[in-house]
Amino acid sequence: MADYRVIEVKQSVFADNDRKADELRARLRREGTFLLNLMSSPGSGKTTTLLRTIEALAGELSIAVMEADIDSDVDARTIAGAGVRSIQLHTGGMCHLDAYMTEQGLDALRAEDPALVDLAILENVGNLVCPAEFDTGASANAMILSVPEGDDKPLKYPLMFSVCDVVLINKIDALPIFDTFSMDRVRENIACRNPAAQVIPICAKTGEGIDAWAEWLRERVATWKSGA
Amino acid sequence: MHELGIVFHIIKSVEEIAAEARIGRVSAVTLELGEVSGIMPSYLQDCWRWACDKHEVMRGCELVVEEIPARTFCEACGTTYKTVAHGRICPACGSDNTYLVQGNEAMIKEIATPEEGA
Asked: Among the CATH numbers 3.20.20.140, 3.40.50.300, 1.20.1290.10, 3.40.1170.10, which is that of A18-220?
């Protein structure tokens, strides 16, 4: 006879995070805050894109930013310089954020200033693998793919592209130099992973395409707040 | 490198399951991991010991990993083949009209406790 007993579980290893994420989404829905989870590889221009986004929307929406990094607060200081509330989340060496860390971030924002915001943006850790596996509780997932990274990224990191509602193709001003990058091919590759994903070409440096991106966000925030 | 985060989530889930089942000590956790789940069993084991020993219920708990081989089915010709060897293109007919049948699992299958049932 065995000196131990076995209890059958049959539960996904992500189940507890998924439950937390759903809880968080319900809370955000009640509070009228749209949470955008922004993902990308390091150096794709997340922070510059954020600055442009804030510039485009700050007059009409209240915005707060949570910067996740393994260490340092360079990004949070840059964002605070743009005049919106920002906090730095340190993941303590971890390569992604999960719903629990996101909740801590939202609570920390709340502790600083109890006023609710229309749009909270979570700048996830620069990484195309792990952040895609952990639901943060966000209302929508966005990712930035920059031209120098190549148009085959959707084939190499399928999960990331399959969880995204919108893909921003950044640094389009570099297209003449990185002439092996094809806008048609990248659209095809993204559609092959996720036919529902919207693709918006932008250049965070010059501001090109930011209007279309701001419009996408504006509509999503409005729909979220109306409870649809 | 996401294995540490995954270990934390497994521990959190197992602690909840143990509390519900009124178990004070868990001696083993068995996972079913697909070959293409993107989770590396050896990395999981590396973080496991370190993370478990911080939790009373999990102290000394063993991690058992049952690997599930990845298989892909071809809708064009009906062949089932080994995913890792051939990827998305069917080795029998060359079609890319294929889907993964198994191999993406990341499940806590069962837990073991040295304690008697109530």
From this structure: 3.40.50.300
